Amino acid sequence: MIIDNALLKEGLYAGLRKGFDGFIWIMKILIPVSFLTACLAWSGFLTRIDFFLQPVMSLLSLPAMAALPLLIGMLTNIYAGIAAMAVLPFSRDQMTLMAIFLLIAHNLIQEGIVQAKSGIHPAKATLFRLAAAVFTVIAVAPFFNITTTVLAAPEASYETSPPFINALQEWGLTTLGLSFKIFLIIMCILTSLEILKTFDLINPLVKALNPLLKIMGLNEKVGFLWLTAVIFGVAYGGAVIVEEVKAGHLSKEELEELHLSIGINHALVEDPSLFLSLGLSPFWLWVPRLVVAVIAERLLQLWRQIIRVRLET
To answer: Are 288 and 97 within 8 A, CB to CB?
Structure first.
């Protein structure tokens, strides 16, 4: 295969530019969110509301303090959730469960709107993602050595907290290290994607993934849209999905199956890779979501068959 150096340079330049722009965008979220989270942790406020949060978090085998990163991630995006996680004293197993939850249920408002414009009711899409996130975490929790306490919870009052300057220094070092790791990950991923797009390798990739689509329980007609969401996410790939829906090439059932799958398995390249910066295992960042998506599709198809049989009898 002969590689066109001009095209390679074009893809490389576009990828590096988008990677840097993406990194700056993430930093605009990560720095203020992580700083405010660190301030809350230092103040002891989080420990004062344990009694309110613990019953809900116990269902997920997590400490009460885990509610803050989860809420931030669900209402905003996964970068903000990671920023909050990074400055709080969680164990690696606790962070893994939180990562699994957030990989499925993040940015629910914005992505719910995108899904609504492309063929599924936003309430249905959002409730399904929340249910899938809760189910997945409960299912994998027995494989971890989980406690509902943190490694070193912040003290409950200002008098027993460390000096603020010390907390600020620790936040700065943690954020600097995390930012450097995210920079490398973002630059590599977006540069690779731009090179694939430049050489028009996305469509051949879709054809190569047809066996995987069958395993996932999806029609080949949704292959390109599924790959778009898998690579770029629901929010970023939403424009492509919306345009395809407007063209009327897909049935209501096919759209529902697509949204069911991408609700669990979107941004499979970038989002899990960001959690690698926290030292989490790749297996738990990728495999559980794929398994749950397959199960969900099969259950949906089984439910439809049962409904058809009842209507025919």
So the answer is: no
Output the CA angle 11-13-114, nearest 5 degrees. Answer: 70
Angstrom distance (rounded) from CA 142 to CA 55: 18
Could you give the CA distance from residue 221 to residue 226 in angstroms, rounded to a whole number? 9
Residues contacting 105, CB < 8 A, separation 6+: 73, 74, 129, 130, 132, 133
Q: How confident is the model at residue 50 (pLDDT cuts 50, 70, 90)?
A: low
Residue 79: pLDDT band with limits 50, 70, 90: confident
User: Does residue 189 contact residue 233 with C-beta atoms inside 8 Å?
Assistant: no
What single letter denotes the amino acid at residue 182?
Answer: I
> In 3-state terms, what secondary structure has residue 245?
helix
Closest CA to 285 of 72, 82, 131: 82
Residue with tokens 């090439």: 249
Locus of tokens 């992505």: 111
Instruction: Output phi, psi for 102, to 5 deg.
Output: -70, -30
What pLDDT score was predicted for residue 128? 92
Where do the domains of the chain lie? 5-312
Amino acid in position 60: L
Is the full-model pTM beyond 0.85? no
58 Cα distance to chain centroid: 22
116 vs 17, which has greater pLDDT?
Answer: 17
Q: For residues 42 and 88, is the Cβ–Cβ distance under 8 A? A: no
End-to-end CA distance of the chain: 59
Q: How far is CA 280 from CA 18, 277, 285, 298, in A?
A: 26, 7, 8, 29
Contact, 266 vs 234, CB < 8 A? yes
Spatial distance between the Cα atoms of 121 and 112, rounded to a whole number of angstroms:
8
